[in-house]
Write a structure and sequence with these properties.
The chain is mainly α and 341 residues long. It contains 10 helices and no strands. Helices cover 77% and strands 0% of the residues.
């Protein structure tokens, strides 16, 4: 009996010890798991922090690289600007050297280049007058001035230029000289006087008082017919005008007539400015014809305008055909050869 009791006690003790060791193992495993989780969380935190630091460093590095690139671009631009300044300085130095050489040549009495350059400038001005303003008179004056400048030189190389310039002057002198600006002013002044042209009223002049026809020796029906005819002559008056008589105009037609006159004058002014001789002559001729046809010919105003229109018909607004390109080309060649020599 005692033996059984001991065995039971030992079995309980053994089971108690096993249970205690099992609890200890669970506790240790739990502690180990907790420690592992803490270590893992700490490691993950440290890794995230390192990643953030690396990302920040990469961003800073990229910013530094962008700033460095901008500095390189700015430096390259500065180098380009310096090169351009150096080139400009070199060009300026060359120009100064050329100016000094020209000045030294001038000091030695060599004024040929300067005279030719002045003549070239005058010929260019003359060419501009012919091309843009069609002022042949001014162009001729400028060419004659250029010829006088070249006459101061005794260089055989200028013979071709002298010949070409003389030909241009002769061609301009052969053409009719016309100041388009003055012509425009004349036409404009004449246009303002058109409204003063007198239109004939041409009233019907009363005929002599008709003497009644003696009807004593007429039959009754002839006498009645004669009385009817005399009465009709007092109601309806027919007047004959010869072929030289001016036409009658209604009041509203007078306004249109003056407007048409102004329109023709404006057309002539436009043609003169743009050098269209056909349009100019047609407009002036039409004005002359209308003034003769519709206005009082004995009026001093009409006579004056007709006389001035006749003078305007003699003007030729044909643009000048003189070409100065040959002379300008020869001047350019001479100056180029002189500079290179």
């Amino acid at each position: 009996m005692s033996n059984q009791t001991n065995e039971i006690v030992e079995a309980k003790l053994t089971s108690t010890k096993g249970f205690a060791w099992r609890n200890v193992g669970i506790i240790i495993s739990t502690l180990a798991l907790i420690i592992f989780m803490g270590a893992f969380g700490f490691g993950y935190f440290q890794l995230s922090r390192i990643n953030l630091m690396l990302a920040k460093n990469m961003t800073d590095l990229q910013s530094q690289m962008g700033s460095t690139q901008q500095q390189m671009t700015s430096l390259q631009q500065s180098v380009n600007d310096l090169q351009q300044l150096a080139q400009k300085a070199q060009d300026l130095t060359n120009q100064q050297a050329q100016m000094i050489a020209d000045w030294q040549a001038t000091q030695k009495g060599n004024l040929s280049k300067w005279y030719v350059a002045e003549a070239q400038y005058l010929v260019k001005l003359a060419n501009d007058q012919l091309l843009f303003t069609q002022n042949s008179a001014m162009a001729l004056t400028l060419l004659q001035r250029a010829q006088q400048v070249l006459d101061n030189l005794h260089d055989t190389n200028l013979m071709a230029i002298h010949k070409s310039l003389a030909t241009d002057i002769a061609n301009l002198q052969a053409q009719p000289q016309q100041d388009i600006s003055q012509l425009y002013v004349t036409l404009s002044a004449l246009d303002q006087q058109l409204d003063q042209l007198p239109i004939p009223t041409n009233p019907l002049q009363p005929n002599q008082v008709a003497v009644p026809t003696n009807t004593k020796n007429m039959s009754w029906w002839q006498a009645g017919m004669q009385h009817s005819w005399d009465a009709l002559q007092k109601i309806v008056i027919v007047k004959y005008n010869g072929s030289n008589a001016l036409p009658l105009l209604m009041p509203e037609e007078k306004t249109f007539l003056y407007q048409n006159l102004h329109a023709q004058m404006q057309s002539a002014m436009w043609a003169a400015l743009h050098h269209y001789p056909d349009i100019y002559q047609q407009s002036i001729s039409r004005l002359h014809e209308w003034v003769q046809q519709y206005f009082v010919q004995d009026s001093p105003m009409t006579k004056n305008i007709l006389e001035r229109l006749s003078e305007l018909q003699k003007i030729n607004v044909q643009p000048s055909s003189v070409n100065l390109s040959v002379t300008l080309q020869q001047l350019d060649i001479y100056l180029t050869q002189t500079t290179s020599g």
